[in-house]
Amino acid sequence: MTSTARAKYLASDRAAPKVGHDLRVQPGIEQLTSLIQLFIQGCMMKLDHRSSIPLRAQVEQVLRELVLVSKYQKGTLLPDEVKLAAQLGVSRGTVRSGISKLVFEGILERKAGIGTRVSNRRVESGIRAWRSFTEEMEAKGIKVKNFGLTYRLARSSDEAARALQLNPGTEVWRLDRVRGWNGKPVLITTSWFHPRLGLKGVEDFTSKLYYTLEKVAGVRPHHAREEFLAMNADAQRAKMLRVPAGTPLLLREHTVFDPGNRPFEYAEVRYVSSRFTLTMELRRSEV
């Protein structure tokens, strides 16, 4: 088995943007799939307006089948919203909603004045997906904000020392950031960096982390080892994330390696689970 991971971010509060959606097929919609495929291959698409399945869900399924058509996989622009709405017999807003959902999932990309096409981000590797967190969020229309940032010399935790292959208590540079969007913090990131990087404490980590590390230390991430755990927010972290103490958090521990298989960063990322969802998509390897 090989696995590809993609992060899907769901801002669940009413005021927050819908960033990603559950990919599971809704009950009953699978009965429409074969019919939809026939219509798409025949260049005609229709919805069942008498079905109990909401039209927005049917539109979304049409779009998921449409993007699999060869010409769209090769970069041809999808029909515009007006044409799709007219052909499907729904409002333009319903079509726009379906397109936006697939844009948020990284399946489609939309550029003003050009149109909508299948995104080539779907074929990028996992390392690319997690290292471009800020860029990925910006592509979804979300601007990531730093609610807090501290950068200091500190003794490595036992976990950090073990991951970075250092003696316990070795002094390293530690970066703590509270990040989020829509006026609410979503995650706390704590990173410990290997002394080998030669950091001076003057580095500007308000921008993209790995871009900065490559610029100042000449190191590039090659692969990472990840572990995921569930935990509850203690009083201190709850205050930082503006949630009640005991709120469920997703803890993601990852160690990042350079092309020489040497660890250079160990990080613990704690997400408010109601505002961030990580999904794993497993695919069977070719025999």
Description:
There is one protein chain. By secondary structure, this protein is α+β, with helices and mostly antiparallel strands. The chain folds into 2 domains: 21-124, Winged helix-like DNA-binding domain superfamily/Winged helix DNA-binding domain (Arc Repressor Mutant, subunit A); 140-283, 3-Layer(aba) Sandwich (Chorismate lyase). The protein has helices at 30-41, 55-66, 70-73, 81-88, 92-104, 126-131, 133-139, 158-164, 209-217, 235-241; strands at 2-8, 108-111, 115-118, 145-155, 171-181, 184-193, 223-232, 248-257, 263-272, 277-283. Strand 2 (108-111) and strand 3 (115-118) form a beta hairpin. Helix 1 (30-41) crosses helix 2, helix 2 (55-66) packs across helix 5 and helix 4 crosses helix 5. The longest helix has 13 residues, at 92-104. Mean pLDDT is 78; it is low at 1-43 and 122-131.
